[in-house]
Write a structure and sequence with these properties.
There is one protein chain. By secondary structure, this protein is mainly beta. It contains 6 helices and 34 strands. The strands form 6 sheets. The chain has a 7-stranded mixed sheet, with no helix packed on it. It has a 6-stranded mixed sheet with strand order 1-16-24-23-18-21, with no helix packed on it. Strands 3, 4, 5, 7, 9 and 10 form a 6-stranded mixed sheet that branches. Strand 14 and strand 15 form a beta hairpin. The protein binds CU-O-CU linkage and copper (II) ion (2 copies). CU-O-CU linkage binds next to strand 8 and strand 33.
Length: about 525
């Protein structure tokens, strides 16, 4: 196994040096450094059955009981199982028909995150599945090959329902886009649905137990990957593709390997990047996905970890400063890879993966601004606290917890934006709050034009549906609004920190003629 010293030494290499801003205060994670561990669970693959004119999937949402710890049971929610759901495999250009039965005992919804589809099939807060009901959305899959997901989008309780287990991965395949990449599910094509959870002593989930949880979102101290605590994976091939899905409610992960090894990112939220991006560190905020290919041919033990960040939030007396300074500062072990001597050969990652048409800025006929805020009351969050002498609009005063976009909170019967059908728009996302918000738009994929006036990094140049907007940042995205006109039923845009979404950091748009 990886010793702490070995890992620290390895991380000291220059590729992870100060230049990258990477900080590794200590490799002792919240979970300790255990040599035991559990084999990584692989969610069952559901391919559906093609009958009629669509691929049919049966999904039953129900309560379950899970043994994350050896002798304690945790009450959970699951989809066709006790915790989480199967990985659904869709094919581009095929219709899917989903039969969802709600046996949870409470109302819910199921949303297909990242898909371009009619609002009636979107599974947002308006498409409630009442207790005991079934819901049968149907849509044609027009997405490119990629990694997507599905999860509860129930108004005000999405956070709690996802926390308990209402989520799963979706893989879209494209028969016309054959790229020689590791693609045997569960063998060299591995889903990693990553979450952090907090538990009570009796093994039950502990959801929202402090004021902090309502402000920065619900973060746990135990990592679950596909519902596995302390997971390990044993490669059998030289190259392995991991489909990383940050399915945490609020935590951002900053992935590195313990020996600093490089890997290649091949896909972002909406599909392949133009070409693989070589990197040794990858940040994913809630709901973001990335596919990476890692070379394990050296046969070494190595660990995928999430490294904490040094907070640059100014220190001043008061709860807000303490909270913001503690954001994402912890290290976590995500997955142990147990090195193997004899591995099957893999084909090298091709140079070119896809061609991505960059939406030209000039195509946009309208620009909208979305201001993400979380402060109100005595201090509107427009300064950095007493004694710092800086007033730069980065927030940090008091009054966190009042979440809004453009000063409004989500209201089910208020339409925030009306968008002209068949147009391209630029959305300017600003954030005057003290923390990052992952901004997500329904109805498909957008592109990031720029981040604070700079071209985004190479791995943000592909299709995206969720983008990080850091404190004080200006991120411009560009998106086309095509195919589905509906002057009654809206799509959502929101912060994907689920506790922020549940508390109003969401808005609605219509696509109108
Ligand atoms: Cu992943 Cu509106 O959600
Ligand atoms: Cu979504
Ligand atoms: Cu947020």
């Amino acid at each position: 196994m990886i010793t702490r010293r070995k890992a620290l030494k390895a991380l000291g290499i220059s590729s992870l040096g100060a230049g990258t801003g990477l900080c590794i205060p200590s490799l002792t994670s919240a979970q300790g450094n255990s040599d035991s561990g559990n084999p990584l669970k692989i969610p069952p693959l559901a391919e559906g059955e093609f009958t009629g004119n669509a691929r049919q999937f049966q999904l039953r949402l129900r309560r379950g009981s899970s043994n994350f710890f050896a002798d304690t049971a945790t009450a959970t929610f699951g989809i066709n199982g006790d915790y989480l759901g199967p990985t659904l495999r869709f094919r581009r250009n095929e219709a899917v028909s989903l039969h969802i039965q709600n046996a949870l005992g409470e109302p819910t919804t199921l949303h297909w995150h990242g898909f371009h589809l009619p609002t009636s099939a979107d599974g947002g807060p308006h498409e409630v599945i009442a207790i005991g009901d079934t819901w049968n959305p149907q849509f044609t899959v027009v997405q490119f090959a990629g990694t997507f997901w599905y999860h509860s989008h129930m108004l005000n309780t999405a956070g709690e329902q996802v926390y308990k287990g209402l989520a799963g991965m979706i893989i879209v395949e494209d028969d016309e886009q054959q790229i020689d990449l590791p693609s045997t599910y569960g063998v060299d094509d591995i889903p990693l649905l990553i979450q952090d959870r907090r538990f009570n002593d009796d093994g039950s989930f502990r959801y929202m137990s402090s004021y902090e949880d309502t402000v920065v979102g619900m973060r746990g101290d135990v990592i679950l990957v596909n519902g596995t605590r302390q997971p390990y994976f044993v490669p059998t091939t030289k190259l392995v593709r991991f489909r990383l899905l940050n399915a945490a409610n609020a935590r951002t992960f900053d992935f590195v390997f313990s020996d600093g090894r490089e890997f290649q990112q091949i896909a972002s939220d909406g599909g392949y990047l133009e070409s693989a991006v070589t990197m040794n560190r990858l940040e994913l905020s809630p709901a973001e996905r990335a596919e990476i290919v890692v070379d394990f041919s050296d046969g070494q033990d190595v660990r995928l970890i999430s490294v904490g960040k040094v907070s640059n939030f100014p220190e001043f007396p008061g709860a807000m400063s303490v909270m913001m300074r503690s954001l994402n500062t912890q290290n976590f072990d995500i997955l142990d890879i147990r090195g193997q001597g004899r591995l099957q050969d893999s084909a090298p990652v091709p140079d070119r993966l896809a061609s991505i048409y960059r939406l030209p800025e000039a195509a946009a006929t309208n620009t909208r601004t979305f201001r993400l805020s979380m402060g109100a009351g005595m201090r509107s969050g427009d300064d950095r606290g007493p004694g710092t002498g800086s007033r730069n609009g980065n927030g940090g005063g008091h009054g966190g917890g009042n979440f809004s976009i453009n000063g409004r909170r989500m209201e089910m019967n208020y339409i925030n934006e009306r968008i002209q059908f068949n147009t391209t728009e630029i959305w300017e996302l600003t954030n005057n709050s003290p923390m990052m918000h992952p901004f997500h738009v329904h109805n498909g994929q957008f592109q990031v034009l720029d981040r604070n006036g700079q071209q985004p990094p190479a791995n943000e140049m592909g299709w995206k549906d969720t983008v990080r907007v850091g404190s004080g940042e200006l991120v411009r995205i560009i998106m086309r609004f095509t195919d589905f006109i509906d002057d009654k039923n809206p799509y959502m845009y929101h912060c994907h920190i689920l506790e922020h979404e549940d508390r109003g950091m969401m808005g609605q748009f219509l696509i109108v003629e």
